[in-house]
Amino acid sequence: MAEFKDAPAGASMGVKTMTWLENRFPTAFDAYRVHMAEYYAPKNFNWWYIFGSLALLVLVIQIVTGIFLVMHYKPDANLAFGSVELSIMRDVDWGWLVRYMHSTGASAFFVVVYLHMFRGLLYGSYRKPRELVWIFGCLIFLCLMAEAFFGYLLPWGQMSYWGAQVIVNLFAAIPYVGETLSLFIRGDFVVSDATLNRFFSFHVIAIPLVLLGLVVAHLLALHDVGSNNPDGVEIKAKKDASGKPLDGIPFHPYYTVHDIYAVSLFLMVFSAIVFFAPEMGGYFLEFNNFIPADPLKTPAHIAPVWYFTPFYSMLRATTSDFMPFLWAFFVVVGWVSVRRSAFPAIVKTGYWGLMALLFFAFGVGKVLLGWAGVTLANPLMDAVLGGYDAKFWGVVVMGGSVIILFFLPWLDKSHAKSIRYRPDGHTWVYVVFVIFFVILGYLGIQPPSTAGTLVSQVGTLFYFGFFLLMPWWSQLGAFKPVPDRVTFAAH
Prior knowledge:
Blueprint: H1 13-24, H2 26-37, E1 40-42, H3 51-72, H4 80-91, H5 95-123, H6 131-152, H7 158-170, H8 178-186, H9 193-225, E2 248-250, H10 251-276, H11 309-317, H12 323-338, H13 344-348, H14 350-372, H15 379-385, H16 390-403, H17 408-411, H18 424-445, H19 450-468, H20 470-473
Antiparallel strand pairs: 1-2
């Protein structure tokens, strides 16, 4: 049993209260010291490092607003739409505000998480010794996608209903277990009341519990190894006589004040959207979702919410005539990454030369394939598809586009963690990657078209080429010298 400490003589009531609490709950005070007051973070954090705190803020917003929504929501196929659009939006005091905060919060969550992940890409926050931090972060991302998917059906609008129908049917493409799995997820042969109840339980109870556990694990793993910084320099390597990092400052109060300022700016933007543009032109809340779900009337165009659309574009881009090029692409980039000496002429052209060559071959091949009239019915295409249809391979590509993120710590062979000290060519690779990702997201919202499919296929090739060729291109070019200590200018 720990020895009790007495408050100093003449101490104020506040000090006496804190001493009393610390004597009876020392674990909480130890946690505060370890993770706040005595957690030393690099002193050169910039604005890219606010998005982790903002993600925690949005998580709290979603949990609190979700609790109030559940009080009035009815998970019944006959009552769900009315409970949202009539009861919550019109009858409950301030119900419209809570609903719009929750719907806007869902999009805000993915905005800050995408930016948080991109910051990790820029500064190499997934590199040794932070591999586990990155893996926990990717698991959080998967949970967010599942949470958003399960919550997407709950308003029981037209787009909710048919979007869930399309996504659940994708599981049927999985060999052997697909039909059974999709039936289990739906709880019926079509999306129905049973599906609504299952999605409600997952959205409200199961996934949030897993998500909270992963967030705690993510933070604990981060604080065990320490935060990365824009220079990619380990501050624990240089310590003073007392064992404190020379380039570190206590997280509290320095970065808590910094984050409070960022939170204030974020809440201004968040409030402006909630009050003036909660639908955001149909991107945050689709117009079809203000129409009750009708199983007998299919919308002209079914698309998921914007934060799923980059991966949905890859799914739609995976057509039967695209598969030969995708297989050839994987073979070439895999060979270049593993055995670069096998293609010395190609490797000497650099990353952009190789990508241009692959895209040129893709374009010529598409034209020749079209002239030859090769279709899925041909024995050649059946062999390429391995006996499975393009829908199955589309699901594989879409799933692989997320799973590949988990392997990033081992794909990046760069001599410097941070983009600051990498060759300028690496910056342009990241810029084009972001451009293609945004284009894929935009095309996923639009109705299918020949030109859109072609651009999506090019974007899909570039997306996978970015990661699969990383063991090769991440070592190209002349690197800048990495300093021994962080660079910092007082402000």
